[in-house]
C-alpha cells in the first residue's frame, strides 16, 4: 500500500504481467492515463490503477470495458 511506482517499474510490471507494452515515458501519479501498446498492435490509454488493480491490461477491442463499474 502506498507504494510509489516509477515509470520503469510500471514498464516492468506490464512486461511481466501482460501482453501490452508501456509507451509512456513519464509517470506522475495514479490519476494519469498511461499509453500502452496492446498485443494486437493498437495503442490504448489506461490509468495504472485500472491496469493493475482492475486487470484492464488490453485495449478496448481485445478486452471491452464492462458496463458496470465506473466510467472514465
Ligand atoms: Zn488489443
- Mean of the pLDDT scores? 91
Ligand roster? zinc ion
- Helical fraction equals 10-25%
* Structure annotation, total helices: 2
Give the helices and strands as they follow along the chain: HEEEH
Separation, N- and C-terminal Cα atoms: 23 Å
Strand content: 15-25%
Describe the largest sheet: 3 strands, antiparallel
Specify the structural class.
alpha+beta
* CA-based gyration radius: 12 Å
Q: Largest beta sheet: what is the strand line-up?
A: 1-2-3
Shape: globular
Number of strands: 3
| pLDDT < 50 runs, ≥5 residues | none
Structure description:
The protein has 72 residues and is α+β, with helices and mostly antiparallel strands. The chain has a domain at 7-53. Helices cover 24% and strands 17% of the residues. It has two helices and three strands; from the N terminus they run H-E-E-E-H. It has helices at 7-17, 48-53, and strands at 21-22, 33-37, 43-47. It has a three-stranded antiparallel β-sheet with strand order 1-2-3. The longest helix is centred in the N-terminal third of the chain and has 11 residues, at 7-17. The protein is globular and about 30 Å long. Residues 38, 40, 42, 58-59, 61-62 line the site of zinc ion.
Summarize the structure.
The chain has helices at residues 7-17, 48-53, and strands at residues 21-22, 33-37, 43-47. The protein has 72 residues and is α+β, with helices and mostly antiparallel strands.
Amino acid at each position: 500500500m502506498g507504494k510509489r511506482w516509477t515509470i520503469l517499474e510500471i514498464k516492468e510490471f506490464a512486461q511481466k504481467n501482460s501482453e501490452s507494452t508501456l509507451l509512456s515515458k513519464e509517470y506522475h501519479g495514479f490519476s494519469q492515463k498511461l499509453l500502452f501498446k496492446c498485443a494486437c498492435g493498437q495503442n490504448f490509454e489506461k490509468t495504472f490503477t485500472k491496469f493493475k488493480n482492475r486487470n484492464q491490461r488490453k485495449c478496448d477491442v481485445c478486452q471491452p470495458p464492462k458496463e458496470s463499474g465506473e466510467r472514465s
